[in-house]
Amino acid sequence: MRGVHSWDTVRRFYVANSLSNLGDGTRLSALPLLAVVIAHGSALDVALVATVSRAAWLAAPFIGTLVDRWSRRACMVSADITRAALLLTLGMLALGRPPLSAVLVIALVTGICEIFFDCAAQSLVPSVARDGSLSLERVNSRLMAIQTVGTGFVGPPLGAVLWECWHPLPFLADGGTFIVSALLLSGLRDRDRPRPDRRPGGFLQDTWLGIRYLLGNRELRRLTGAVALLGIAQQTAFGTLVLFATSRLRLSSDGYGLLLTVAAVGALLGAQVSPFLVKVLGPRVSLWGSVGLTALTYALVALVPAWWVVAVLDALNSGCVVTWNVITVSLRQRIIPPDLMGRVTSGYRLAAWGAMPVGALLGGKVAAMYGLSAPWAVAAAIMVLAVPLMWGVHISAAKDEDEEESPDAPDHGSRAPADDPGTAAGR
Description:
Distance between the termini: 30 Å
Order of helices and strands: HHHHHHHHHHHHHHHH
Number of helices: 16
Structural class: mainly alpha
Number of domains: 2
């Protein structure tokens, strides 16, 4: 009885996430195309649409607080329904020439909904893993693969193809994917619905509680610092990749696209093999190996700027980054109490995403001063700075999920947010 219902829950969760990520990928390619048409090719207006889409991350800690207060399943369904309504409306507006202000509002609100959905989905993973008798690493690796396929492989080219067929089509199809995702999620159990917080305090105090937990726990604090450095390093190198590929490697635009495709393949392979690596090598060796190999790939690209070497190293780099994500996400999900999962997760992800513009600016400055190979060397050096932070993170092998999450297990909410090594066993 449990097995049939459990696998139905897991399948619904996977398919709904697949459709949602497919919709996100389609939107991210179609919105700039619409902006080009309505802005008459203005680079500033097109960049503004892209900026507004990502500016929603500034609200991530507050969104995490709402996710912790509400049902995670309801957050995901509401995010899907809101995105469906907005994109179907945009599809109708695209029959003519919608005002830029409308496109900016829709880009911002759909970006906020994306954060709601992703934050709630990550918070729901422990419940889904228990229902399917799966490890957190296995569920998270599947989600990483789903995200890579939806937002990297299928979504963006699909959005461009649908745009060429009929300008409203990508937005109408996008709205349809979110409707189906919402229907699938509506039948999902939400066993980890947050308990009401009986302590006095308002919305801002609840938000601060999540930030304080993130900074007060030794493992989470060190992981947050490390992921910020990894984000800076990544964008230092990849922020000027298009110039490095076309000028230094002398590739055509098609060759540059091939580099991106190879990197996406590496990410997909990393998502597939990461649970196996954790099982065979253990999470500590796998995590340290991913960090070390990532630094090595940056250094080798700087030293050996041949296109085929760079292609292989980009794929390896992407696989290592995904392996890092799978392990650290699963670790955070064991550490964070269920009633703080949304707030702490959103704060962690804000640190990662917020650091990336710093890396992009640094990479551009370094490339302008010392050449297009220099950002890769700087990225390798930044990765070395993450080593002292990683040294203090206690990573123990994941226990059997059924045993770990049994009804008789201690309540996660009773764990202290201070520097307690015991919490490391328990994204």
